[in-house]
Structures are given as structure tokens and as C-alpha cells.
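Researcher: Good morning. I'm working through a list of sequences from a screen, and I'd like to move beyond sequence-only analysis. For each chain I'm collecting a predicted structure so we can compare shapes side by side. This is the next one on the list. No need for commentary yet; just the structure.
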Amino acid sequence: MGTRFAKFSESMVAHRKRVHIAVFILTLFMIPGALTALQPIDMESYEMESPELTAQSIIDNEFPTSEIILGFVVSVRDPSQVEDISTWEPASTIDGGTPDYTSIPPASQIVEAGQPWVGISEPNGGILNLTILKEIDYKAKLVEEHPLGQSLKPLVNEVTGHQTTGDMSLADTFSGFMNNTSILTQPGLSPLGVPTPPPTNWSDCFPLDCLSFDDVNVTQDHIDMAAARMAEGSNNDFLRWISLDRGFVSDPTSIQSGPIGGSLDSEGNWQNEMTGFGRWSGSASWLLVQLDRASLEESGWEIVWKDAKQEKSIRSSDDGLVIGGYRLANSELVLHPPQYSEEYCLELKEEEGAGCSVE
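Model: Good morning. C-alpha cells for this chain:
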């Protein structure tokens, strides 16, 4: 064995120039495959069989005007990782408006989820913290201002009964309830047509003044009160907007009372609870976005990722080497998604037959 390897190594050394050229050529052949491997995996590219995928395929083919609903998890960041407001700066943008993903807090800073029906104690209210709700509202507005925003399709909030432009979050729920126009604060009718009183109200908030969500004087106490009234009056629909660790956390300084330490049974009744002062809290919620499929296709967007233009180009920018949808930063590849516009996508689809990827 040793003799064979010795002869092989002698041959390699003797023809080292040819070996180097061969290795270089083989490396060039591997570059396209490496770029493909860096692309996100699209499950629709795999021909898998299942009743669910078959049903979705039929819906897409038979009902081309169907909607696309995207759900984004919005989580609370660990308070120990949050910068002081005096030193905090928003994530910067680079290379024509792309967010600098190296300055965005990593997922590892998400606060750990609590036990079911226990809630989290920090920050006050968790995902129902006033500051966090305002940030969620800001993120929803970014969705509306995005190039995809013109293809939003209205959604109806099951808690308040209000219609949104196409994005829906906890901030919309509080806004709709705290302006005193939701179905929870209006009289209704029973299945037999008998008038019924409002499940709750936002006209008597003693010892507080009933303020709207956008009022500059609104406080965490207002949020706590609104959350408690929606949780009680919405047949638990409101609680479904909060992660499974939702719970009423005890706080003697709060002005709101609720079920501490209890849980809901399958019939929607509380078990083993103790009434006391505190607030509702949880570690996460949803931001829902509904897009009109037909509108997207008319604007040059591709619903299926594999049908869209594949970003494989390699270019140099002021912020580093850009490879497809990634950027080389500190010897590591970080996300660097392209910034598309409707004009570019329409032109691209007309010239190459493949538009921009919605993803």
C-alpha cells in the first residue's frame, strides 16, 4: 500500500503543473452548484404527494384569484438585550435600501417562552406591552408601504369586526376596540333576533379616561384594561392572538383584576383560577398579511419561487461582495435580499419571462 502511494505521489509531484490546472478547472465547474446550494429551499420545487398539497394545487389552478395569507411571528426580545433608548439606533440600510442584517438583533435574543397560562413578567404585559404594540403597529405600516402593499387584500378582525387593508396584528385589535366602535362595545342580536347588550364597553374606564390607542396620553394601564375586557367579552377570540404561554400575571400595583393561575377547559370555562390584580401577558403573537394572487401576477411578481428570476449574480459593493441574495461580511454570508420595484419586475417578466419572487 505504501509503495503504491509513493508511486502515486511521485507522479503527482512530477506533473504538479497539470494537477494544479485540473484542480482549478474542477473548481470552476463547482461554482454554479455552490451558488445553487446557497439559495433558499423552495418546498414547491419538490414533487411530493399528499392530500393537502393536491388540494392546494387544485385551488391554485381552479381559482386563480385566490388569496395568499402569510403569517409572521412577532416575539418579545429579552429585556436584558434591549439597548437604552438614549443610545438605540434603527438598523441601517445599505446598497440601495437593503437592511443591514448584521445590525439586526439575532433570533437568539428572543425571550424564552413561559409555561401555558402562566404568562411572562418582563416586560410588563409581554407582547401586550404598550411600547411593543406601538412597534408592531409601525411594522404593519412598513408592510403597507412595501412594493407588495398595493396587492394587499382586506382582512376582517374576528375580535373587533373591523376590516383592515390587508395586514392585521394585535395593534389593529387594540386600535379597533379602544375607539369604541368594535362589535364588543355595540349592541347585537341573538340567533333568534332578540336584541342583546354589548359584551363590554370602552365608555366607562374609571379610574382612567377612555383613550384611543393612538392617543399620546395612553398608558400601560389603558392597555391592561382593554386586554382584560377583550379577553372576557370576545368569547376567548382575543386570547388566540397571544402565544400558548398567555396568562394573567399577578401585580399588586395594577388596577386591573383577572384570573390568576387558572386555565381554560375545552368548554371555555376557567378552572382553578384565583381573582386578583395583574395583567394579561404572553411572549409572542402574529402579524398576518393577505395578498391578492391575481394582482401580484399582474404587477410582475411570481408566486412560486422556482418560477421567478434566480439571483445568482456576483458583484462587488461598497459594503462587501454580494453573491445572489447574500453578502459577505466578516468572512460570513449574511442575508442581503434584493430590493424590487413594480417597474423592474414588469420589465423583467417581459424580457425574460420570469418576474420577481414574492418571497
